[in-house]
Write a structure and sequence with these properties.
The complex is a heterodimer.
Chain A: E1 4-6, E2 11-14, E3 19-25, E4 32-38, E5 45-50, E6 55-57, E7 60-65, E8 70-75, E9 84-92, E10 95-98, E11 102-107
Parallel strand pairs in A: 2-11
Antiparallel strand pairs in A: 1-3, 3-8, 4-5, 4-9, 6-7, 7-8, 9-10, 9-11
Chain B: E1 5-7, E2 10-13, E3 19-24, E4 31-37, E5 43-50, E6 53-56, E7 65-69, E8 75-79, E9 88-95, E10 104-105, E11 109-113
Parallel strand pairs in B: 2-11
Antiparallel strand pairs in B: 1-3, 3-8, 4-5, 4-9, 5-6, 7-8, 9-10, 9-11
Classes of the chains: A mainly beta, B mainly beta.
Chain lengths: 108, 114
């Protein structure tokens, strides 16, 4: 089983819709969790950290479920500019692991 | 402030040649990471520096790959006797060593081995 797994997509979603995707991780010792965003032919950039209690940043909501070992990202009122690949990142002592990403296409 | 910079931005080389890729991290970031990303693929971890030392070299794909870091600053990734399968974008990231260790990425070096 891969350490960090994501549905590669693509998710094709109409503008204005809500979309959610999950990321599962296999190592229960994982400590910190993040979502990064990567635009085509660009470097990854931090979108948001994921906290145990769940956290929100504008239209983006991230949640962590330690019992089931997954994190989620919810995007509300999606914009064309949200089209990107979303990378799940899991960190534990001395190690940071990136998922392969979920591609999101927002359709006009 | 200045972000992570990498050079060259693009490199075309012939199979069998050596290449050297450079990363300048954000000033004060003690952690530095190298990743490889092939076209349409995810990030592949290569190596991580804590200061000038690399506690984890397990990600280097072969003994043709080596990396060093000096002065807790600049890092170079060297690929000897390049092969066509080395063609990829090589990304460098740096971070503070704190609870979050948020990584800030450079723009990458696009390597094409002919």
């Amino acid at each position: 089983r891969k350490e960090v797994e994501q549905d590669p997509g693509p998710f094709n979603v109409p503008e204005g819709a809500t979309v959610a995707f999950n990321c599962t991780y296999s190592n229960s010792a994982s400590q910190s969790f993040f979502w990064y965003r990567q635009d085509c032919r660009k470097e990854p950039k931090l979108l948001m950290s994921v906290y145990s209690s769940g956290n929100e940043d504008g239209r983006f909501t991230a949640q962590l479920n330690r019992a089931s070992q997954y994190i989620s990202l919810l995007i509300r009122d999606s914009k064309l500019s949200d089209s990107a690949t979303y990378l799940c990142v899991v960190k534990r002592v001395g190690e940071i692991i990136f998922g392969k990403g979920t591609r999101l296409h927002i359709l006009p | 402030g200045a972000g992570v910079s990498q050079s060259p931005s693009n490199k075309v080389t012939e199979k069998g040649k050596d290449v050297e890729l450079r990363c300048d991290p954000i000033s004060g970031h003690t952690a530095l990471y190298w990743y490889r990303q092939r076209l349409g693929q995810g990030l592949e971890f290569l190596i991580y520096f804590q200061g000038n030392s690399a506690p984890d070299k397990s990600g280097l794909p072969s003994d043709r790959f080596s990396a060093e870091r000096t002065g807790e600053s600049v890092s170079t990734l060297t690929i000897q006797r390049t092969q066509q399968e080395d063609s990829a974008v090589y990304l460098c990231a740096s971070s503070l060593v704190d609870e979050k260790e948020t990584q800030y990425f450079g723009p990458g070096t696009r390597l094409l081995v002919l």
